[in-house]
Amino acid sequence: MDDKSDKAFVIFIVLFFLVWSLRATVFYFIDQAISSDIWLGVYSQLMKVILWAVPVCLYIRYIDKASIREALKLGNPKGKWRSIFAWLAAFTAVMLFSASVQKGVLPHAPTNGWLVLLLANIVSPVCEEIMFRGFILNKLMDRTSFWKANLITSFLFVAIHIPFWLYARGLTGEVAFDLGGVMVVSLILGYFFKKFDSLIPPILAHSFNNMLASLV
What we know:
By secondary structure, the chain is mainly α. It is built from 9 helices and no strands.
């Protein structure tokens, strides 16, 4: 990236964090005014699509002037599916064990219904992976080593969770612990992205992780 593209990238990230922080705090009263769990789920995920996925696609299309599919590495990782499923199985098993140890419970039926669960754990991971692994990590890897890029991306991924978690839950030890968990998961997702050169594995792993967290 040259200086001009670096500046555009930094401005994009700053604006994204500003807009999302406002949505997760100042404008969260809109979410609180929606009494239906289903409509709340639809609204929440629609905001994720509009504020996370759409801006990235517009940036790639009109600023980078590149193919969205190729830039985000959304292609089919041909010949790697057996390895991908093996890694995903190991990842899911570790996350399930970790959740059962930390919370002392195993997965159970969702209290808000399966539609809300599916919306939160399919749409949200896709949008988050498009923004952080497909876009931010990919951009940073053009400028520095993978692990440095992965570390910066993961810090940013943790940071985007902070406004809402502090707003909704306050500054507690549990929030700090959960943020540490987000950091670890983000580093793993970044590794999956690098290893398979595709956004599909981190999307699947992210979705499985969120699903387990929701059920636990």
